């Protein structure tokens, strides 16, 4: 079968083969152990779907601390008992949780969190993307996250594939975090600064993105049916060691990330004829890997 | 359930309600009949999947005429007998067709088409997007298609959600059109100018995007298994009238499209707190609708 964008199946030419040019994957694989940062277990939310599919979300307490604190409380208080994925809209979002109007808030959770849609840019060490962006004055990466910087001195996380945000009603509601969504199509960046982003899916996004789309307006499922029941949502920090997930992200301030970024912007391996000379922020996903067993 | 980005369920305030602000959907619905262009039936490729799901692709003969001519010949000669969707890679592509190495070319088809990756920009009347782009000097819309314009005077179609391209091997191979893919994640714009784009999915993309992901490298299915068998691929122009699909796109040079574009760049309906002031090309999908029965 023809392989789109692959390096495989090239005839092996023993004599005159030039040095193979790096792909983004090569650059990630070449990163030294020192360039990887282990994600704290209390920042990992593990959702188990009916049938066993697992979705792992890295939380972003540096951007939406009150919503993230709520989410941790919900996970620990079994708030999501009976929750489900109830909306799957093609090229937009998969959404899940429990109807906030019908479930008593967990002890200590905040009923009306502030609008954590932006935070001050000050305090963020940003590695710039180096390509223009239609939505912000500047974009780049800070502490492993894609970020946008605005003229007013604020910063936000950005809606890329896998980004997790908080479903909400109309202003001034900001959502409690009891209903969440993940972006499963082209990054809906118009939502940046309009909704609380609380994290991103770092493993198992296909367990959401390949779900059947809902038949009702905006991809909602018919009343009484759901895309998928959720068997449990827990923080990795509270799980038995044997079931716990551990992941690392590539330090976005490291030389290894700089090399990866340069290659993403200028694909010049054998499949490519023209290097783009730039990249969209959402086409430079921050590399994540399971923590190697030796560490 | 909380509704992300919805206008519904607002309490009806009889006295002081300000005029409702337009959503992109409102703008499309307000477009006059004169702003819609019917797609010629010979430009519609209708793929029927096992189980009945239908995927309709609008072909782009203005950008890849030789590949599109091949595709029409393949459809008419039943070249794709036994074809299948054999690759589904999350956040990238679904790919289908027949192994070109194992199937005799249809009569009149071109075995080695030219590299129809770009065309001259001259001759294209482009409505500019009006936002910066990381991949091209300028981007916009021409004859209903998203296009990119480059410094060297060339133009290309762009890889957005639903874009259909031609699977190929390494240079100088360009693929015959016998193996095709559709983008099912964040638009992989780095492929622009590196591969022949032959069209876009205008209906039924969810029949590809919600397929289970392949377990092998790059989302390929295991040898001997496929994501989905394909029951038939035909041009609408050759189908019985009763089974034929007809679609229209919104003229991208029309005032109605200009209004839609302005709203896409500045969402200010009730859900939004901050209008972006710009948009990514792939976040402005050209509106398409079934041709109204009255026309």
What would you note in describing this structure?
2 copies of one chain form a homodimer. The first copy, chain A, has 295 residues and is an alpha+beta fold. Chain A has 4 helices and 16 strands. Chain A has helices at residues 24-29, 65-76, 206-209, 255-265, and strands at 36-38, 44-49, 54-59, 84-89, 93-97, 119-120, 127-128, 138-142, 145-149, 154-157, 163-166, 179-183, 197-203, 228-235, 247-250, 288-290. An 8-stranded antiparallel barrel of chain A has the order 2-3-13-11-12-5-4-14. The longest helix of chain A has 12 residues, at 65-76. Chain A is globular, with a radius of gyration of 20 Å. Chain A starts with 23 loop residues before the first helix and ends in a 5-residue tail after the last strand. Residues 5-15 of chain A have low confidence and may be disordered.
